[in-house]
Amino acid sequence: xxxxxxxxxAGAMALATSSAVNAEAxxxxxxxxxxxxxxxxxxxxxxxxxxxxxxxxxLDFGNGIYLGTWAxxxxxxxxxxxxxxxxxQDFYLGYSGELSSGIAYDVxxxxxxxxxxxxxxxxxxxxxxxxxxxxxxxxxxxxxxWDSTGEFYYPYAEYSFALPSDMSLGLHVGANLFxxxxxxxxxxxxxxxxxxxxxxxxxxxLSASVVGTDISESECFGLDWCEPSILAGASYSW
Length: 238
Description:
By secondary structure, the protein is mostly beta strands. The protein is 0% helix and 59% strand. It contains no helices and 15 strands. The strands form 2 sheets. A 12-stranded antiparallel β-barrel has the order 2-5-6-7-8-9-10-11-12-13-14-15. Strand 13 and strand 14 form a beta hairpin. The two termini are 14 Å apart. The N terminus is likely disordered.
C-alpha cells in the first residue's frame, strides 16, 4: 500500500518492489518509488503545480495488521526570505479484513509530518472505510487539521471499473468539512474530485487523471492550486 487510499492523490504513480521477509509467519515488506507531474492532495496542489518524487516502505503482518511510511516532495511557495517546507512524511498503522465475500473494511491511524519550515504543520487523522465490490465509502477525522485549523472531517466515495486491455477507470469524490474558517479564504467546506484512467503494460503502469475542486482561485490563497488540472505518471513494479 503506497498510502492510505483516501490520502492518495489521483494520478500518483509508484515504482514498487516487494520481498517476503518471513513467509512462514506471513510477514512481508514492500517499497515504492514514483513520480507525478503535480502532487495534489484532496484536490489542492502540494508542489506549486510542479512534479514530485514520492516513495514509501510498508510492512504487512499477514493477519490484517499493516504499518508503513510514505514521503513526497512538497512546495508551499512561501514568500521570499521565509523557510519553505521541503517534504511531507506520513506514518500509518492500520487493520484491514473482510466481513464476507466482496465486503472488506480498513481502519487505522496516520500522522502527517512536514519538514523544512519552522511552522508547526504536523497533524494526525484516524480513518475507516468499507468496500462493497468496486465501491468504497470512507471517512477520515482530524482533531486539529493542517496549520492548526481545528477539527476536520473527510467523507469520500470511490468507484473503480475494470476495462478491456488491462485498463482501469477510477472515480473519486470527497467533502472537506472544517470546524473553523481559516484553511481557505472564507471557506469552511469544499468538494474535491478525480477521474483516473490507468493502463498496464505488464510491469509498467501508466495513468492520466483529471483532479479538481469546487473552490475558486480567490478562495485558494489567490493561486491556481485548486483549479482542475490533468496529472500524469508512470510506474514500474517488480
